[in-house]
Amino acid sequence: MLARFLDLLADLRAVTPPDAEFLYDEATPEGALRLGNLRRYLELAAGATTLLVGEAPGWRGATITGVPFMSVRELTARPGLLTGEPDGDGFTAPPDPAAAWELSASIVQKACRSWPVQPLHWPVYPNHPFRAPDRATNRAPRVPEVLAGAPLAVELVRALDIRRVVAVGRKAEHALAAAGIAATAVRHPAQGGAALFAAQMAALGREPV
């Protein structure tokens, strides 16, 4: 069902600029771990009806775990955030992570906790854009980058029969619009937007889909 999505993800490697990092390279231990976690996440989130689209992975979160809006702290939560199982969700934690948690991941996970059906999380640009040469930084993805990544969101909508798309921030909203996907926009939680983001997400979680 997601074979084309995974093919598109692999193809993204060929158009990764020097100041961005392709995260899902099976030939490296780190990339294989991230890809394994992503596959497990997509398996657990297969019943989602809403796709929550952010901008790009942050160096403290998905860049380490491979799972959008999930840092090591959420990845290793007991019980599991997604299944509630006492032994967790079946993810693999990296042996020596560069960071243990990410603020945006914590805010997003908390905001989604009350939803009856958890939304599927995905970044409109799946590579990690950084301020060269320091990979332990984040930068905003450029227009060509988000346009290169947008087809993956399109494929998720198609393959999983997603009924509603929510864009976290204007950059994600504009990229989705350019790809032909209409999205409900919510405030990005960064830079003082956490309270408004939480309120908007709570309201969306109460709406039927």
From TrEMBL:
Record InterPro entries: Uracil-DNA_glycosylase-like_sf (IPR036895)
SUPFAM superfamilies: Uracil-DNA glycosylase-like
Name of the molecule in the record: Uracil DNA glycosylase superfamily protein
Organism listed in the record: Amnibacterium kyonggiense
